[in-house]
Structure formats: C-alpha cells, structure tokens
Amino acid sequence: WEYRHLVEKYAVLNPERIFLINDFPMDGFDNVISTVFAQHEASFLAGALAGWMTKSGKIGFIGGMDMPVIRSFQTGFNEGAKFSNPNIEILESFLSTPDESLSGFNNPALGFSTASRMYQNGADIIFGPAGLSGNGIIQAARRHQKYVIGVDADQDHMAQGYVLTSVMKRLDKAIISLLDRIYNKEKITGTYSFGLKENGVSLTPMTYTKKQIPVEIQEKIAQLRQEIIDGKIHVTNTLQINGETHSSR
C-alpha cells in the first residue's frame, strides 16, 4: 500500500509522465499502468509436476504469510497436485499471520526448521512462496536430500539437483510488452494481467533436474500448459474471486 500511495501522489504531480507499478492492481489514473500475474496458473503446473514426481505420496506447501496472494499460489499448487495425483496428501504451513506483519517472509531459519519438520513427516517435495524465508526451505531440501520448488525467480541454481523447478513471475516479459506498446504510441492505462498465455508466468527450464524427470512427465506438463492457455483447464483464481484483482485486458 505504501507504494500505491507514492504512485498516486507523483502521478498526480506529474501528469505528463507515465508510471508503471508491478504486481499490484491500480486503476483510475490516465498515466498509470499496473501489472498483475497469474501465479495460480504456473503453480498448477508445479503442483502437477510434484504430484507425478512424489514417491511418498506426500508433499508440502509453506507460505510466508496467510494472505490472499499466497493463498493464490497454494490453490493453484493444490489443484495441480490433485489433478495429477488425486490421492496425494498435502501438508501446509504459514510462517506468519497478518497480525505479525511481514515477518514470515524474512526468516530463513524459520523456513528451514518448518521445512525440515515437513520432510521428517514424509513430504518429499515442498513448494515455498515465502520470500527470503524460502532460502531456508531450499537449504532444508539440500540437507534432507529432498525436492523443493522455488518461486518468483529461477532459484534452481541455489541447490542444484534439489530445486525441482521454480514458479517464475516474468516481470521482464511484462515490462517489455508494455514498453513496446507505449513506444508504438498506444494509449494504455489501468491493470494488465500476465499469465501463461502472455508468458508472464512459467516454470523454469529445470536445468539441473531435467534428467531426473521422465520424458513423459515433461510432455504432460507441456500439454497441461497448453490446455490452460486454450481454456480447456480452468485454474481457480482466488484473487479474482475475492475481488482483489482487475480483469485482464
């Protein structure tokens, strides 16, 4: 919200300039463009991959905070896992509540201990959208020699061979797309959504784990991606249901 207020203030003071705010819906200004990302779609692919790759039949989800955007990751992940493995068991934990501010996103030690308990309780793959706390989750995967799924950026290199994949938000793709439209003198304003179709979210190339993933599973993931793009598979967007994002443009 602090960033929103800053953009609102300076957009009004500088009407001749164009402002772009990432990962936050913002409408109502002629000179402000904002982006949101369909993390639930890429999370579905990560969940399906986990469902096909688990050997224990038990996987985990660790969120930095129990808040709507993290629930969006969780919903997509859970739906994907149950799509590929209907009998899968999914353990879950949140590192903080809204009352505890953003502490759950800045505690790698807590991420490590929470993930370690999940691995000890039988989970063999954990998805951890938890900010810096996710670094601790990744180190727990290395320590326990289990899989983890990274988030936001390509984190596969952080524990080579143990980060199964990462759910990426492609801010670079989104910004280039919008800047190109501005350069071509299109009048654009308001909120723009970037999902699998727009290459705004994706899984990584799985540089360090691709050889560990059977070819048929890789092909299934590619097929699921296309089916989501084509509208044949619908992934629940909890943010849209809760009215916290605006419709795609």
- Radius of gyration from the CA trace? 19 Å
Termini separation: 23 Å
Contiguous uncertain segments of 5+ residues:
242-249
Number of helices: 8
Query: Number of DSSP strands?
Result: 9
Q: Name the shape in a single word.
A: globular
What would you call the quaternary organization?
Answer: single chain
* Major sheet summary line: 6 strands, mixed
Which strand order spans the largest sheet, edge to edge or round the barrel?
A: 4-3-5-6-7-9
- Average pLDDT number: 93
Question: Could you describe the 3D structure shown?
Answer:
This protein is α/β, with parallel strands linked by helices and 249 residues long. Helices cover 41% and strands 18% of the residues. It is built from 8 helices and 9 strands. The protein has helices at residues 2-13, 39-53, 68-84, 108-120, 133-144, 171-183, 215-229, 238-241, and strands at residues 19-21, 32-37, 58-63, 89-94, 125-127, 147-152, 163-169, 190-194, 201-203. A 6-stranded mixed beta sheet has the order 4-3-5-6-7-9, with helices on both faces. A 3-stranded parallel beta sheet has the order 1-2-8, with helices on one face. Helix 2 runs parallel beside helix 3. Mean pLDDT is 93; it is low at 242-249.
